[in-house]
């Protein structure tokens, strides 16, 4: 019965001309049959990638094929797919997954080929970096589709090839403050709660070549730049020094536009467009001079006041909507620690 059902799905996939219906058939094929008949499902998907009539779906299926493949049995398919412009991007990972280090030479050749599209060349270098733990992607966007031509570190890749493709050391996780493992104060406990929530997100998605969603130790240079601009409330300054957000971005029901929590390295520049003109660097009229923007959600600023303190040293957080003609700030949370806990719940 299962063979008959699989054969029927095979025929329907190849006969279907409606993209939405094809998507549902493909999902049914994978959900019902991939676990027990993985090889048969792979053969169907690869056959469609070669000859299917819905051209855009031939490329879309490649991610499913890469996910399902195990071992070197289908290496020839990925070698063929690398030569197909519409399939080559995903075929890079398929060849690495199926042949390992034997994929290095053809992928270096792909990266070096001026006849290949920029995004495929970038993908080859990115995937080689991840697989070999070499720093060809350090500091570059996690998505190689966003790389520019001048960011292709081809010379480094070619040197690596000449050296015999040695494994690299990979990337170290960002340095964090010891109190995140032994929190005592209210601030430390709030930061630890936020860090634990961010760690769950990092388990789902993280690229240490461009780490995101970390609370890290701030550099002395960044803190000196901050101190040269403001005398920050102590509790917020300590947060930046011990738990500086590194590309912390959360979204969801609490922050439907997404909220970006600033770190020490970006706090000064983050004032541009709010209190400081981004090009002329003069103060912008109409901005309350004692407010420092510490986060934004779709351009709406969240701020602390330089001269407001509560008895325990904490401080309220204010929020305003942008694009209304004038800034009208309302208190968002009673204190900064409550704001951190709100962010943690949104992760």
TrEMBL record:
<protein>
    <submittedName>
        <fullName>SMI1/KNR4 family protein</fullName>
    </submittedName>
</protein>
<dbReference type="InterPro" id="IPR037883">
    <property type="entry name" value="Knr4/Smi1-like_sf"/>
</dbReference>
<feature type="domain" description="Knr4/Smi1-like">
    <location>
        <begin position="230"/>
        <end position="341"/>
    </location>
</feature>
<dbReference type="InterPro" id="IPR018958">
    <property type="entry name" value="Knr4/Smi1-like_dom"/>
</dbReference>
<dbReference type="Pfam" id="PF09346">
    <property type="entry name" value="SMI1_KNR4"/>
</dbReference>
């Amino acid at each position: 019965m299962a063979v008959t059902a699989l054969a029927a799905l095979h025929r329907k996939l190849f006969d279907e001309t409606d993209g939405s219906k094809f998507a549902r058939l493909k999902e049914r094929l994978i959900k019902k049959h991939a676990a027990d008949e993985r090889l048969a499902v792979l053969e169907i998907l690869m056959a469609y990638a070669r000859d299917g009539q819905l051209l855009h779906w031939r490329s879309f299926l490649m991610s499913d094929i890469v996910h399902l493949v195990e071992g070197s049995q289908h290496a020839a398919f990925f070698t063929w797919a690398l030569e197909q412009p519409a399939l080559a991007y995903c075929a890079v990972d398929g060849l690495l997954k199926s042949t390992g280090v034997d994929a290095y030479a053809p992928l270096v050749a792909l990266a070096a080929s001026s006849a290949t599209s920029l995004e495929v060349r970038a993908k080859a270098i990115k995937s080689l970096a991840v697989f070999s733990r070499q720093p060809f992607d350090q500091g570059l966007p996690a998505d190689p589709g966003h790389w520019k031509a001048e960011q292709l570190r081809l010379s480094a890749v070619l040197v690596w090839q000449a050296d015999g493709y040695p494994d690299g050391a990979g990337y170290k996780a960002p340095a964090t403050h010891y109190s995140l493992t032994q929190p005592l104060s209210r601030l430390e406990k709030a930061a630890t709660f936020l860090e634990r929530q961010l760690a769950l997100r990092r388990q789902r998605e993280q690229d240490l070549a461009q780490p995101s969603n970390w609370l890290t130790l701030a550099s002395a240079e960044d803190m000196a730049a901050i101190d040269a601009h403001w005398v920050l409330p102590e509790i917020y300054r300590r947060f930046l020094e011990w738990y500086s957000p590194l590309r912390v971005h959360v979204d969801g029901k609490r922050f439907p536009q997404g909220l970006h929590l600033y770190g020490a390295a970006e706090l000064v520049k983050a004032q541009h467009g709010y209190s400081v003109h981004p090009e002329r660097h003069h103060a912008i009229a109409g901005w309350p001079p004692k407010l420092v923007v510490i986060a934004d959600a779709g351009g709406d600023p969240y701020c602390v006041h330089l001269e407001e303190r509560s008895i325990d040293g904490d401080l309220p957080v204010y929020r305003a909507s942008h694009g209304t003609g004038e800034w009208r700030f309302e208190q968002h949370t009673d204190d900064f620690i409550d704001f951190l806990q709100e962010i943690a719940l949104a992760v």
